[in-house]
Amino acid sequence: MNDLKHASASLPTLKSADASVRRRSLMAGCGAHAVHDGLTDVIYVLLPIWQAQFGLSFAQIGLLRGAYAGMMAGFQLLASRAAKRWGRERLLVGGTALAGLAYLLAGQAGGLTVLLLALLLGGLGASTQHPLASSLITDTHEAGGGVKQALSQYNFSGDIGKTLIPGLIGLLLTVISWRASVTLLGVLGLAAAGLLWWLIPARSESLSSQGKASKAITGSGSAGGLRALILTGTLDSAVRMGFLTFLPFLLKDKGAGTAGIGLALTMLFVGGAFGKLLCGYLGARIGMVKTVWLTEFTTAVLIVMAVYLPFLGLMVMLPLLGLALNGTSSVLYGAVPDLAGPGKREQAFAVFYTGTIGGGALAPVLFGSLGDVTGVPIAVILLAATLLLTLPLSWLVQRGLDADARLYQGAR
């Protein structure tokens, strides 16, 4: 009887401790996402400065940007496998520290060679963030629920980092040298690594084990559904990056100047950031398929409207377009844990992010070549048509989710 009373008394304490683990894991994952995405996109601010400083050609500029993105995309799957050997939290902290060290090295660069080496190292460090932080949040939240909502917050935090860090560095560059600014980025990366080391709770491994055990009970995943999900995410990312490439030219044709184009992109990104947050919650409420059909069909219609609307009409529409354009990604991320088999979440997230980043990298090249032949308006309309391919794919994803649910019901 005393043992029963003791167990009952300790239950609220355990629940409180688990809630603390989930909260700290979410803060760690969101913080890692914000810092890494900020360190990735701040390169766009620095490239013109490096070009002027070192006399680089556009091909060399492309090489620098491609080196970071290529390393980040190419090593995500390897990072997920390495986490099984050395530990997910340890590798996430190490990758963040490596990204910081890369910027410290870039701050000392005297030419293209050292810059290229620094960005290769930075991309390697960044490759750990997406698969490991997202799987950390997933596993620690599964036992207590709210996985999809947590992933939408994680997704939203990346856009916050993309907005704040490049913006702050842009302001700093008006008062201090680029070398000092880049060195501060390196210090930020190292400080973030130290904060992650402190913030990620020791009990996250035990909660992760509970989450994986729960997954083993609730189903074995769906390989076919996961493949359809990865293809859906790849097409969604390809259209998003392709449209972002063409949008400045659409705006220019409508009479926008440099300031107008900058304001338009800001409005689109602000809408996109909130779309990632809101659509994750919407997906948890009405389901993945309904949300994807709503956001993707809306995005396709608004992209076509962007071709024909006058400048002021397009500016008014851009926040809504950004919300739909970016919002789908949160819903898709939230389905990855449901379709991954037991113990394969890091790998599933790695493959998913590799596909989406790869699609986003290839789309501007492919649709840019198409735009040279057909003109920008036709290429943009074809982008919208490509997006409609995600609608039947999302139905295949739902079939995989339903099959996994049936297996769970049968097991019970």
From TrEMBL:
Keywords: Membrane, Transmembrane, Transmembrane helix. It comes from the Bacteria. InterPro entries: MFS, MFS_dom, MFS_trans_sf. The chain crosses the membrane at residues 54-79, 91-121, 176-200, 228-251, 257-279, 291-311, 317-336, 348-370, 376-397. Residues 1-402 form the Major facilitator superfamily (MFS) profile domain. Coiled coil: none annotated. This is MFS transporter. It comes from Pseudomonas nunensis.
